Amino acid sequence: MIGQLLSESDAQLQAGKSNIVSAVGQYAQVIIEVIPELVRIIGEQPPAPELSGTAAQNRFNLLFQKFTQVFMQAEHPLVMFLDDLEQYDRAIALAKENQFLNEEALADELAAKFYLDWGKEKIAQVYMTEAYYCYARWGAKAKVVDLETRYPQLLFTILQKVLFTSSRHQVKEQNLSSLYLSTGV
Questions:
Q1: What pLDDT does residue 103 have?
Q2: Torsion of CA 31, 149, 144, 120, to 10 degrees
Q3: CA-to-CA distance for 25 and 19, rounded, in angstroms?
Q4: Chain-centroid distance, C-alpha 172
């Protein structure tokens, strides 16, 4: 898509740029993270506001749909080969629909690894966060610890919250211990 647009006339390239910017607006950076070559057409873009979990995934899905619609025309149908991505998302959706928490967790984890291998850490973070929470809800404590150990850079926000909550809990326990010691209970 990008290569084809770059081979067009200046007028067509400018129209394509305008259409893309119009479609994705202030969130163009979200698409650039997946298709870095897009910078050659629309230039550098400001960072998109941070979202987490499902909100980030929903934003990406909506923006990607809007982006691809720019290129769709009746006389030139758009065919994309995103089999792996589609399969992960389909597996996640079906597992969610059928309430197979373990399968949802595994599909999220595999999607995160796929994006991480592809160099898309922010997107990988969304999927790994979902995997982490699914494993935790499923009760797979060893898997949660495994993810914390192997992917701390993707789970940084969660791990910070856990440490903060844990340290607050310890402070409360210390205060209670001090109270018990001072009252002789």
A1: 87
A2: 10
A3: 10
A4: 35
Environment class of residue 155 by beta-carbon count within 10 Å: exposed (0-12), middle (13-18) or buried (19+)? buried
What is the Cα–Cα distance from 63 to 25, expressed in whole angstroms? 9
Instruction: Please give the backbone phi and psi of residue 73, each rounded to the nearest 5 degrees, phi first.
Output: -140, 150
Q: Mark out the alpha helices in the chain (DSSP H runs).
A: 2-6, 10-24, 28-32, 39-42, 53-71, 83-97, 101-117, 121-138, 141-150, 156-183
Spatial CA neighbour of 1 closest among 80, 58, 88: 80
What is the rounded CA–CA span in Å between residue 117 and residue 143?
20
Q: Is residue 162 within 8 Å of 132, Cβ to Cβ?
A: no
Provide the residue-wise pLDDT of the chain in tens; the chain has 185 residues: 677 777 778 888 888 889 999 999 899 999 888 888 889 899 999 999 888 777 888 888 888 888 888 877 655 555 554 556 777 788 888 888 889 898 899 889 988 988 888 788 999 999 999 999 999 999 999 999 999 999 999 998 888 776 555 554 454 444 333 433 444 44
Q: How far apart are CA 106 and CA 43, in angstroms?
A: 37
Q: 129 and 93 in contact (C-beta within 8 Å)?
A: no
CA distance 90 to 148: 26
Cβ-contact 91, 80 below 8 angstroms: no
